[in-house]
Design a protein that fits this description.
By secondary structure, the chain is α/β, with parallel strands linked by helices. The protein has a single domain, classed as 3-Layer(aba) Sandwich (Rossmann fold). It has 5 helices and 4 strands. The protein has a 4-stranded parallel sheet with strand order 2-1-3-4, with helices on both faces. Strand 1, helix 1 and strand 2 form a beta-alpha-beta unit. Helix 1 packs across helix 4 and helix 4 packs antiparallel against helix 5.
Length: about 130
């Protein structure tokens, strides 16, 4: 497996809960996922923590929603980093796919993840 790591940045305890669910489903394969919360952190503190957790090397930073404080922190830490990508709208399908395919190069991995995340959004309409 590659050393591509995943950082999940979200409001409150959402990142921790998502990663917990991935660990229950995927087992030890989720070890390269790290949770970061914006709880009790200002913009600078959050940005610095995301940068520290992302470390060096290829990293996908998953964010709960576009344009929130988590996204702004992720964008600012990834600007100018060729091997760091931000994906907004994290969900369980995208994280599970990351765990099982993080050995792919970022150029292949990122479009795959976005597709899996989008495919995971469905409307189930009961028939009358």
């Amino acid at each position: 497996m590659s050393n591509t790591r995943g950082v999940v940045v979200a409001h409150g305890r959402l990142a921790e809960a998502l990663i917990g669910a991935v660990r229950r489903i995927a087992g030890e394969g989720a070890d390269d996922l790290v949770a970061v919360s914006n709880e009790d952190r200002g913009p600078t503190e959050l940005r610095d923590l995301v940068a520290e957790v992302a470390g060096d090397g290829p990293t996908v930073v998953f964010v709960d929603m576009y344009a929130g404080s988590c996204a702004m922190a992720a964008f600012s830490t990834c600007r100018g980093c060729a091997d760091r990508v931000v994906i907004c709208g994290v969900n369980l399908p995208i994280l599970l796919d990351f765990v099982f395919h993080r050995d792919l190069p970022l150029g292949e991995l990122v479009p795959r993840l976005v597709g899996k995340g989008q495919d995971g959004i469905r409307v189930l309409e009961p028939k009358a």
